[in-house]
Amino acid sequence: MAGCLLTLVLAILDQNIVSTAAWSIVSDLDPAHGIERLPWLVTAYALAATVALPLYGKLCDVYGSKLVYMGAVALFLAGSVLCGVAGDMTWLIAARAVQGLGGGGLMSVTLVVFAHLVPAEQRASAGGAGGVMAGLGLVAGPLLGGLLADHFGWRWIFLANLPLGLLVLLSATTLRLSDGGLRHRIDYPGAAIFAAAASGLLLVTEWGGDEHAWTSPTILALGAATLALAVAFVRREFTTAEPIVPLDLFRHPVMRITVPVQFLSSFAMIGSILFAIIYLRAARDVPAAESGLYLIPMAAGMALTGLISGRAIARGAAPRTFLLAGLGFSTLAMILLGFLRQDTSLWLLDLDLALLGAGFGQVLGIIILLVQNSVPLNRLGVATTTIRFVQTLGISLGSAVFGIILDRVTTAHLPPGLTPAQSPTAIVTGINAVFFTAAATMLAALALTAYGHAGRNPAPEITETRSGGAE
Question: Helix or strand or coil: residue 384?
Answer without folding.
Answer: helix
